[in-house]
């Protein structure tokens, strides 16, 4: 099986979610199913069907997280250095058209959160940035059209 790259922080977050699902959410939904069963006829019991659907989601997510965690390849950005953009790097960019600055960290798929500035290594902008250095300009195809960014700084340590 292929290794799934992720930062230590992403790995810890996934382990936390898994622990919560197993220790809190799973017992809660089992209790909700038992309570709904006590209400009688299951064929017309909306609470029961909703609880079973939620249980299915929880069990599926647990299996997914266990698989991802077991396949994780943890990469510590603080142990990396250099001028070129690699997995884990924080990259300060400037939009060449609007002059707006932004910072993104390139992380694994399961820990990506664009609103928090963490983009997946599989995202088009991350693919365009990998291997580039400070001062380079990159072209990215976005839903809004072609965008140009200049790399102002590559950071591996906070």
Task: Describe the structure using short key phrases.
39% helix, two-stranded parallel sheet, 3 helices, 2 domains, 158 residues, elongated, Helix Hairpins, alpha/beta, five-stranded mixed β-sheet, Chitinase A, domain 3
Structure description:
This protein is of the alpha/beta class. It folds into two domains: 4-74, Transcription elongation factor, GreA/GreB, N-terminal domain (Helix Hairpins, Orthogonal Bundle), CATH 1.10.287.180; 77-155, Roll (Chitinase A, domain 3). It has three helices and seven strands, in the order βααββββαββ. It has a five-stranded mixed β-sheet. A two-stranded parallel ribbon has the order 1-2. The radius of gyration is 21 Å and the shape is elongated.
Q: Which strands sit side by side, in order, in the main sheet? A: 5-4-3-7-6
SSE ordering: EHHEEEEHEE
How many β-strand stretches? 7
Number of domains: 2
State the end-to-end distance: 32 Å
The CATH superfamily of the largest domain is identified as Transcription elongation factor, GreA/GreB, C-terminal domain
Helix coverage percent of residues? Answer: 25-40%
CATH-derived architecture of the largest domain: Roll
| Low-pLDDT residue spans | none
What share of the residues does DSSP label as strand, in percent?
A: 15-25%
Rg over alpha carbons = 21 Å
Tell me, what is the CATH class of the largest domain?
Alpha Beta
Query: Given the C-alpha coordinates, what overall shape results?
Result: elongated
- Overall pLDDT metric: 91
Count of DSSP-assigned helices: 3
> What class would the helix/strand composition place it in?
alpha/beta
Taking the sheet with the most strands, its summary is: 5 strands, mixed
């Amino acid at each position: 099986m292929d290794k799934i790259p992720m930062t230590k922080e992403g790995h810890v977050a996934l382990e936390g979610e898994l622990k919560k699902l197993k220790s809190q959410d799973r017992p809660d939904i089992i209790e909700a199913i038992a309570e709904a069963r006590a209400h009688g006829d299951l064929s017309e019991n909306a609470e029961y069907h909703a609880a079973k659907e939620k249980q299915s989601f929880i069990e599926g997510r647990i299996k997914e997280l266990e698989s991802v965690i077991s396949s994780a390849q943890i990469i510590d950005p603080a142990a990396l250095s250099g001028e070129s953009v690699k997995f884990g790097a924080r990259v300060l960019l400037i939009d060449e058209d609007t002059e707006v600055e932004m910072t993104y960290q390139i992380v694994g798929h399961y820990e990506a959160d664009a609103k928090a500035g963490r983009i997946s290594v599989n995202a088009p902008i991350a693919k365009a940035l990998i291997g580039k250095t400070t001062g380079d300009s990159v072209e990215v195809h976005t839903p809004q059209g072609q965008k140009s960014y200049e790399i102002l700084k590559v950071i591996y340590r906070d």
